[in-house]
């Protein structure tokens, strides 16, 4: 029983993780439309506003890893979840562009801390012999919700034309996740009080610095895609009702690659899984950029939806492999730091993607924006094969 992967606590943590990401990404693709239609915000203003939460998460996550490793994890987890839940009420109350910007930015702090705390608790409740595999499956919960939630959000908006309803739904889903996490039994561990001087190592896994740069480059791509897909599809490709289907196909790709890659992760084939995902993603992002230059509606549809499957398959292989790589170079007492480090790196890329994507779209158009994404992904791919893979193999523990 001690080697059982699908224990009750692990399932609960996965359910809570799905809920928190579902609540967050239910709104993500629609916020640019909301800010434009309700407040009349311009493209570059939207980019600045939407990148605010990423900045807050980025500032919070390094300290989150330290706090999770130092204090009672269940207490930290529930505190973060309550603050994350409460921020959704702020969206409903915000009646001006400034108030919305403040709430959105503040929301990034508990979001950043919560994702670190929840994923660290997931590692705690996994048997050590199934950890690589379990981390891979755990990622299904957030990747799947990140893909499904936008589809549902877009469908509800098209059916009701009511943003307030979406804010209430996000609040309820976050509340459900918080209640589920409250029932999780976290193994009691003696808190290790490190009395040595505080250093960067306590907040960021410096041994994984090149891996962090690499994952940031890939986070950049997904930041642009997830935030500007809906408006790009409508204004450039003329696809007004396909965004939900796009995210659904992306989720299918994520789901299939996570399941297929779990066996390889169990065997410890981390760099192989990462390489496979990186190559597939590169093809997917390049296809997406090329699609804008197709003249045939049939080819546009093929490129558009085909890229969704490829990007989903690629990310489903790449991200869990990178997460395991971060954990593999960390000490057992640095699990929280390892989690916060990869999420911090992802956030840096994700946030820069949102900000730069809005600026480039304002001055050069959305087609140039997604060519920028394809080029960035190619740079990230080259970095992995030329340097990051060997960097990891030289530093992994055990």
Furnish the topology, listing elements before pairings:
Blueprint: H1 8-25, H2 31-39, H3 43-70, H4 73-93, H5 97-124, H6 131-160, H7 163-182, H8 209-237, H9 243-266, H10 270-291, H11 297-328, H12 335-364, H13 366-395
Helix pairs in contact: 1-5, 1-6, 1-7, 2-3, 3-5, 3-12, 4-5, 4-7, 5-12, 6-9, 6-11, 8-12, 8-13, 9-11, 10-11, 10-13, 11-12, 12-13
Give your account of this protein's structure:
By secondary structure, this protein is mainly alpha-helical. The protein is 81% helix and 0% strand. The chain has helices spanning 8-25, 31-39, 43-70, 73-93, 97-124, 131-160, 163-182, 209-237, 243-266, 270-291, 297-328, 335-364, 366-395. The protein is globular and about 55 Å long. The mean pLDDT is 86.
Q: Concise description?
A:
The protein is mostly helical. The protein contains 13 helices and no strands. The model has no long low-confidence stretch (mean pLDDT 86).
Q: Flag low-confidence runs.
A: none
Instruction: Round the mean pLDDT to the nearest integer and report it.
Output: 86
Largest sheet: none
Strand content: under 5%
Which bin fits the share of residues in helices?
over 70%
- N-C termini distance: 25 Å
Radius of gyration: 20 Å
Shape: globular
Helix segment tally? 13
Oligomeric state of the chains present here:
single chain
Secondary structure: number of strands: 0
Structural class: mainly alpha
Order of helices and strands: HHHHHHHHHHHHH
